Amino acid sequence: MDAFYASVEQRDDPRLRGRPVAVGGARERGVVAAASYEARRFGVRSAMPSALAWRKCPDLVFVRPRFDVYRGISLQIRAILADYSPLIEPLSLDEAYLDVTENLKGIASATHIAQELRARIREQTSLTASAGVSYNKFLAKLASDHRKPDGLFVIPPRDGAGFVEALEVGRFHGIGPATAARMNRLGIFTGRDLRSQSLLFLQQHFGKSGSFYYGIARGIDDRPVQADRIRKSVGAETTFPHDLTGFEALQAQLRPLVAKVWAICAKSDLHGRTVTLKVKYADFRQITRSRSFAAPLPSHEALEQTALDLLAAVLPVPKGVRLLGVTLSGFAGEDHAGQLALPLPAGLAATHP
């Protein structure tokens, strides 16, 4: 979906159409969850501090997120996708892979399926979707971003390796900013540079990921589309209106996060062994602290006590704390897992895949 959260808000409030819109928190303390394309022209991006976004675009309109609405529309779109294939791998509320090799409608062309899907999504939701069509997940993802917004792009097998060659490695799905910077320091700036490296070289510098990078540089990605992926972790976090320093104030904010995480785990019958605390300071420096156990945590109380112990271990804090988060992971079957995004009410931000 194109700028999903922001597009929903513009759809539902005609006053926002054509204006730069950011979905997210308050100006001083919040973070941009999504930005309309009008806002992106000013350099506003998701995960950007709200204050910085406002400096880049003084006319930016902030809207509080409505996760229940976004989730409902996501389910509506998922139902459309399910008419074509049972092999649907969601990445988030607004994005998914489909394997249409043997599709339910017997349509021979994946491009025609993408055209139908986009038309039906627009008709039923009044929102636009972009689609990428190719012979593997890596290239389909690249293609889906190539003609946004409201675009369709196809990378056939004969063009896969060539398409990758010209791209900067920072645009590769699966290569984040830190890894791209490491590659740049090694003289790897484009897909062509990446392809010129040996498998041994990439494994030496990037470990197990080296084999994946070796393949995608050649347009090769054998990962299957996995429907109903096992959840790997459940987490929740909150940004405070003002920086906090004392243990009592911080533990008062941590407890409702623990309750949210435990509630979703209990509802989904998930039992985790690893608790991770996330702390972001006033200067945006971030740390995490984890503790793992031999057996899954048996109760809400055990999760809360572990989270509080991790919090106590980082005190006294060198600076005020602007954000706390807690995550439970280490579930059974996590080797084949994805991550659960946990949309929460206003004041609480979700962790995303």
TrEMBL record:
Signal peptide: none
Enzyme class, broadest EC rank: transferase
Compartment list: Cytoplasm
Catalytic reaction list: DNA(n) + a 2'-deoxyribonucleoside 5'-triphosphate = DNA(n+1) + diphosphate
Residue span(s) of domain UmuC: 1-176
Top-rank taxon, per record: Bacteria
Keyword list, A-Z: Cytoplasm, DNA damage, DNA repair, DNA replication, DNA-binding, DNA-directed DNA polymerase, Magnesium, Metal-binding, Mutator protein, Nucleotidyltransferase, Transferase
One term of GO molecular function: magnesium ion binding
Keyword Cytoplasm: yes
Alphabetical list of Gene3D superfamilies matching this protein: 3.30.70.270, 3.40.1170.60, 5' to 3' exonuclease, C-terminal subdomain (1.10.150.20), DNA polymerase, Y-family, little finger domain (3.30.1490.100)
Gene Ontology biological process terms in this record: DNA repair; DNA-templated DNA replication; error-prone translesion synthesis; SOS response
EC number: 2.7.7.7
Function description: Poorly processive, error-prone DNA polymerase involved in untargeted mutagenesis. Copies undamaged DNA at stalled replication forks, which arise in vivo from mismatched or misaligned primer ends. These misaligned primers can be extended by PolIV. Exhibits no 3'-5' exonuclease (proofreading) activity. May be involved in translesional synthesis, in conjunction with the beta clamp from PolIII.
Family: Belongs to the DNA polymerase type-Y family.
Xref: HAMAP family: DNApol_IV
Protein known as: DNA polymerase IV
